[in-house]
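hi support,

uploading two proteins for the ticket. first:
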Amino acid sequence: MTTALIPNGAFLNAELDFGLSMLRQVPVTQQLVVSPISVIFALAMVQAGARGKTKMQIDQAISRGAADGAVVDYYSKLSRAIMTSNNGTQARIANGFFIDKRFNISNEYANTVSSMYSAKIESLDFTQPEQAAKTIENFVSQVTSGKLQNIANADTVKDAFAVLINAIYFNAEWEYKFLKGSSSNRTFNTTNNTGRLVGKRLSRCEQRKVFDKTHCSSGRPAGVAVIEFVNESDEERLYAEDQDMQLLSLRYKDPSYALNIFLPKNRFAIEQLREKLDGAYIQHMFSQLNMTSLRISIPKIKIETDFRLEEALMAMNVSEMFNDSADLTGITDSLRLKVSSATHKAIIEVDEDGTTAAAVTLFKLIPRFAPPESVIFSADHPFIFILTKDKNPLFIGQFLEYHTKGHMWKPHALYPSIIFALLLYNGIVVIFLRPVCDQGQTMGGSMENLAIYVPRPANKFTQHYRVAIMTVASVDKMHNYEEALCEVCEKTLQFST
């Protein structure tokens, strides 16, 4: 049994106006299908965590500024109503919030989107982007019965804080099916090829004459296509009209659903019609629907659209959430977030049996400023370590090199050094010779040397060349050549005096 949803005129107007605004973002010559409700649900999830100007813009777009409680209550009920369709109608709507497992969201936000919007909240490893994207893809595919694919990839989750998804699916049979044998190929006038018919309302007789001419001629004029139509004659269906348009409402087996076709009476006046339509006008036309005997001919429809949602929303004055000034602190206060990209994809197929439609909306949330690249910590050079207990240093040390088990590990500076001091008339050349204990070798396996020239001080002079050979025992306790050099020079000069 379908969950009753009491229509709310303000919300219906806002939704219809929102959908028409999306429609107006593309040229009138371009085929299009979008799901305003899918985008609105995704925006409602963002709105639940938005504050300030960011929230105000979303509120205005989806509810004309209704109170928070009213927004959540209405769309929560709408979600449940969609999910409880009957009479064989399959209708699903699902929200998902896929977050990088390194981050967290506020408990209040999690409770709102999970309890009121039935959102699935799942932590994923975004450092494995292909696997994370596959999980998101599977979510969309399951909701839409595989109708929509290639929504998420590795780039979708790269640098993301979270990916927010709404997916919707609809599959239903007509309340009164068209007969299979009623299908026929007919002409469809796509554009005005002569300019002659613009603004001219055709009578039924004129419509028949134009049809006969274009359908029977050996060559089709420009702007005319032959496509497959479904037809029925003298059947009672819901219908309304005014001076500018005809409205046909075809109900499905669950009569709470209907396909409503707004047909301009002026053949090429669709642009004027879409500019004229708004939520209030459409609701007025719905109120005028009555059962009327009709001869119906409508084309089979198959449209798939990748919609540039980010550009559309910004043009529709929902721009703040994309800026560095975005305020989404209700989602988390540990990072400053913004929406970096918005994706919308939809498909619809209409034939004599019924309709299948699906849509998905994806928002990628990132920190306002891209997170810095990971700091590299590669301990490939000497370091100091401290092992602590409640910050008390239990152990402290420094690691300078590795020595295999079975050999003593000892810093080079602690090895005894042999020093040759060659005393010249104008200075001293000091040569350090030091045994090197390499990995796997014993002391004395090789020698390391270093020669340093030190100019003789002006007040010290000798006419003799002397060589001082000594082992300076104190070098064992010195930490570098500089200390050793100072002592050797001092002793050498004393020796030469």
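and the second one:
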Amino acid sequence: MSACADDTTNTTAGDENSDITGDGIEDTETTNGNEEVGTDDATSSTDADTTDADTTADTSTDADTTADTTDADTSTDADTTDADTTADTGTEESTEETTDEGTFCDPGETICFDPDNTQTCVEDGSMFGDPVPCEPDTTCIGGECVSECDLIEANPSSVGCSFFATKLDNFYNNSNNPAQNDSLIVGNISSTDLVVAQLYYVPVGGGAEQPEGPPVNIPAEGTYTWSLGQVEIDSVTTIRQGGVYRVETSRPVVAYLHSPIGSTATNDASMLLPEHALTGNYVVTSYPNTLNTAYPSYFTAIGIVDGTTVDFTVTDATQGGGGVAALSAGGSTSVALDRYSTLNVVVQQTTGGDVSGTVISADQPIWLVGATECANVPAWPANTYCDHMEEAPFPLEYWGQEYVGAHAPTRGNEAYHWRIYGGEDGITVNTTPTQPGFPITLDKGEFYSFSTQDHFVISGDGPFLPVQYLESENPNANTGDPGMYQMVPTEQFLSSYAFVTGEGYNVHYAQITRPAGGADVFIDGNLVGGYTTVGAFEVADVNVSEGAHFATSDAPFGVVQVGYTGVTSYAYPGGLKLEIINPQ
């Protein structure tokens, strides 16, 4: 998403807003217009057999979410995904047959008495002992008390319990203006249970987390917003220890980084992936700086594990500094990061410089965002206004081979600008209907740019990632401004999502993508209609009110959240499953 700065006056323009998207928790069994939209429950179940004692354990997880947005540093009700977990387990009856040793159960064996209690076989094997309560926020499954956070790690999506963030470099910095602070928004995906959330901060130069204020209680279907006051790394290449935030929650949530919060120039936002889903393999998505040399293209990485080695090969010349070597186009280097270290790499200060396509390979997971301080789309200064753009690109493991290239909801007569990034060497990519220049062949990190006014389906014989860039207001768009957002592969669609709009925008859309003639999709209990056919899929742009919403279906589908106002736009995916499609 983004807001913008005038490329001649360098003053703020327009209002800015905040937005948070929510994701449904995937089933545990398996990995323009004012449309009416609705809510279903997404349920999942897991059966576990305990063979030693002829017992059975049935568990089920109810994933029913909605989320609600709030002002900074407040919590409210919201519609987000529900993560209520129940476990039904059988216990041994005294009439059951004994084991071969003549005992009733195996000494030390533990079973589930019910969803909230375990039982352990006594020393002589004659019986199970008294029920022992599980810890709060845990459920007994297969004889163990398991937290909801542990359950989602076994079946990952963009929902999680630990998320990293840092203040990103923007057109305006926050050194003397707290209004330019970034914000971290968390949405509780449960419809019944509160979440206890603690924000931690690692001071610059430090190596240990400290609480940033007291824990907060986020009500069921509620949200909470923290302002991130750490001063940004401003237009330089360096490694900085500390200056990092992390939020930890007692139950699964969704999280978003807004740079900054609200509808002000210049801003953008990213959907964050949880710590357990991060990897070390990325291709940077960014855009050329076009205003002048002071607002460069860059990427920012955070170390998650001490002693991490990060190798990267750049596509354009980059600055050196802070222990990082200067590189020419095509050059490579390695750096070492510890947990809470921040690596910032900036393109050489030349207009048109772009770190897009930089290939990163780390031997431990890292957090990554690709960004531009301020850019015009298309990349020439007459296309006012310029805007900060950012995206937390999906790790290569999650890239797919099929996407629906649905252009953003129409503002005027604008074109829609795309880049297709290759995830491995020698892949062939084509579109239906055919778009300019296709079919194309891409190597890893290589990207192809084109513009169109069409929707299309895009497929390949290997992993790739389409990224859409929203056009500046001036040429033909009439409202909104630059922003960038990645598409979700059809292989990673979910069947339920929670999402929250930005604040202060004139119009908000939930863009729904499903297989043609597929299962009904609902938003807030209302049936989505008005689809446009795109190959074997169909797309609907649903006008939604400001605030929190919940989308669900009986089958997987995709969601993108988009909003526009004068010289400001935002957009990001509504969430995704994180199945490993491309092992690295």
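thanks. also noticed: Residues 148-154 form the longest helix (7 residues).
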